[in-house]
Every structure is written in C-alpha cells, then in structure tokens.
Amino acid sequence: MQTSIDYIKNELKPFYPNAEIKSFIRLILEQVCQIKPYEISVCKDKKISANERQEIERIVVSLKEYKPIQYILGETEFFGLTFTVNPSVLIPRPETEELVELILKNHQEEKPKILDIGTGSGCIAISLAKSMPSATVYAIDISEDALSTAKENAIRNQVEVQFYRQDILATLSDNISGKKFDIIVSNPPYITPIEKHSIHDNVLKYEPHTALFVPQNNPLLFYEKIADLGHSLLNKSGMLYFEINALYGKNICQMLEKKGYKDIKVFKDISGKDRMISAGFNYKL
Looking at the domain covering 86-281, what would its CATH class be? Predict the structure, then answer.
C-alpha cells in the first residue's frame, strides 16, 4: 500500500498542496481499499489488488484534470451524513453546515414546517429532517436532475422530504402555493460573473453554473424573490434563513428591511466572512 501512497503523492505534487494531497489519500484509500484513515499507519504493508491499483490510477488521472474528488468518488460527507453528488448538484460546503446549525439552534424545541429553496443535493433539507424528526420538510429546485439526486439522498439517509420541481422566478405550483411555512431557507446562486477570476478551475469546469452564478446587474435577484415569496408563504412568526455572498450582506439586510422583515441578523462563517442572514417575518406589514 505504501507504493500506492507514494504514487498518489508523486503524481499529484505538481497540481495540489501537500495538505490537500493527504486528504485525497485518506479518501481514496477509504473508498477503494476500505481502509479507514486511522488504519493507514498500520496497514502500509497491506497488498493492493490489481483492480484496486487500477481504480486508484483512474482517480489520480481525474484529479490531475482538476475534477473534484467528491464527483470522482460520487459522494461526500455533510453534517455527519453521506450524500451522493454528481455534476448536476453543487458539492456541499462546510459553510452551509453552519447554516443548518444556526437553524437547529434557533428551533430545536419546535416542530416546524420547512421549505428549502434551491435544494440541489438536498443537503440542507435532509440534514434538517434528520436532526428534527418532528419537522415537516419541503424542498424545491428548478433542475430535475438535481431533484433526482436529492430524492436518492433522502432515501439513503432515511428521511422523508417532499420534493417538487419549481422555478421560483415563475408562478408557484399548487404543491407550494397556498401553504404556510415556519422556516424558509435558501442557499441560492449568489456569485457574480466578475468574481469568476477568484474561483478555482475545479469549480468552474465541473460544478453547475446555474446553481452558482447570478446576473452581474442583479446580484440580489433570488434573495429579493424569496423575500417576496415569504410574505405569502411564511407564518406570522416565520423566519427566513439565507446563505449569502459576503460582498452583499449589507445590501441584503437593507433589502429585507425595506420589504418589512425584522430582527435581521448577519452571521459570520468559520473564516470570519459574513455568510448567513436570518430575518423574522413582520406579519403586521
């Protein structure tokens, strides 16, 4: 096995930093050879089969093309759960775990009805359903392929989520229209085209652009639409939760205030960037 470890290191050294290569080694050995990270040091003399060696080589070739390791392996971890991922959905990020944690902290004693807008892999909706068994969770997305993946993930993680196809910029379907929710959460597209230069190739080349980018001249497009929908979909004490582009935190707060929301709060992620916003629905307005 040590030979395979050295092979991965040497092949990927021109492409990735050492810390990332070490992470790849742990993931590859666990997926291909069923060796847990804590077992690597005591299994270095373990023999790798020809099939395992061939699979490791295939993965390394893909990594040298900057394909995300999560897409190569077909899965990733999020909030202690395993999710199937593919190029039809964004790869869940640690920052989004913090959004889930925020919701759970604020609503841990409740039995809320939740709507996740732009669910993608279903990571937010499914994590909330898993952690709040008494919650009723709906999730929508414009992409049929994303919804297919999200449904697979709900089954994989043994939770019930009601999934529907919906373009939120269009008229709401009867599956959502007329219903009332205690929580609306969304991690919508929020990257502007001018920011492309700061995005890694593995994201630009492989992750779905419809889930990443928003028009340059309207960076709050989805936040404004969701805030408007909140007026008809939220219960009196309902809450909005957003993951945001750190560049537009102030703008989103001002927009929410103008649209009648109250108790608007901005939360920083583990990197110290403005990343989440919560807002209460002012029923009087």
Answer: alpha beta
